[in-house]
Design a protein that fits this description.
The chain is α/β, with parallel strands linked by helices. The protein is 45% helix and 16% strand.
């Protein structure tokens, strides 16, 4: 039995993951800003779940939640940074305060949670940190620049963190979901109040085309994350969904073409031996 600490567990992937991990016989600290959404979990698993309020942008809230997890279950084995939301607009349409809030939740929040949980995990010399990113950080779709930037920042942090803590017995896994059937495009999506007509077509704001289909099933994603976490060597990167896999390969191929095309120019900047 392991103890999982999951942020943003009130809905979507976080809620599905909490349910799946509990059903598998593990303990879960399920956190959310509004804990009433966690009542059903608490009723179904009174002995193995701790539900607690957590605002990842509030350091005191983070400290209290991590301390509560340590007190109730004795430690955190798997930390899942899942809390987050989207923000849609062209880069030129970005609003300073909205962008700052986005980064506070999607990047600085997970960083604070990691720093709060790490000391005890490090002392025990065992544990896994799972950072939920998005394939959007890799494929950088029009209108998703700020969200992609926040997730790319989280992935950059994860890479350095991994190299720092692996010698201490800890692991770090980045998860890049594709499009899943959650509230991400609804309640968990914010749109800029600025609209510049020149970007309507490229952002798909004109015409009758509806949103692209959301292929992924959250319960299957939850099962995949648990399976990967329980592997003797958890992957550094876990893609979720066929669209994420296709996006990964397309982005890698596109980048490789330019790198190879300008390889000679790249090498030309080396100082003479």
């Amino acid at each position: 039995m392991t103890t999982w600490f999951i942020t943003g567990a009130s809905s979507g992937l976080g809620h599905a993951l909490a349910e799946h991990v509990l059903a598998a016989g593990h303990q879960v600290v399920a956190t959310a800003r509004n804990t009433s959404a966690l009542d059903a979990l608490r009723a179904a698993y009174p002995e193995t779940v701790l539900t607690t309020a957590l605002d990842v942008t509030a350091p005191s809230s983070i400290t209290a939640a991590v301390a509560g997890a340590e007190e109730r279950f004795g430690g955190i084995d798997v930390l899942v940074n899942n809390a987050g939301y989207g923000y849609t607009c062209a880069v030129e349409e970005g609003e300073d305060e909205a962008v700052a809030r986005l980064f506070a939740t999607n990047f600085f929040g997970p960083t604070l949670v990691i720093r709060a949980a790490l000391p005890a995990m490090r002392r025990r010399g065992n544990g896994l940190i799972v950072n939920i990113s998005s394939v959007g950080a890799r494929i950088t779709i029009p209108g998703g620049g700020y969200y992609a930037a926040a997730k790319a920042a989280l992935e950059g942090l994860s890479g350095s963190l991994r190299k720092e803590v692996e010698p201490l017995g800890l692991r770090v896994m980045v998860v890049e979901p594709g499009s899943f059937r959650t509230d991400f495009r609804g309640r968990s999506a914010e749109r800029s109040g600025v609209r510049i007509d020149a970007y309507d077509e490229v952002l798909g704001r004109s015409g009758d085309a509806g949103p692209s289909p959301q292929r992924g099933a959250p319960e299957k994603a939850a099962a995949a994350i648990l399976h990967a976490a329980e592997d003797s060597e958890p992957p550094r990167l876990l893609l979720l969904g066929s669209d994420a896999l296709a996006g990964f390969h397309a982005a890698a191929d596109d980048a490789a073409q330019d790198v190879e095309r300008f390889e000679k120019l790249t090498r030309s900047t080396d100082a003479a031996p």
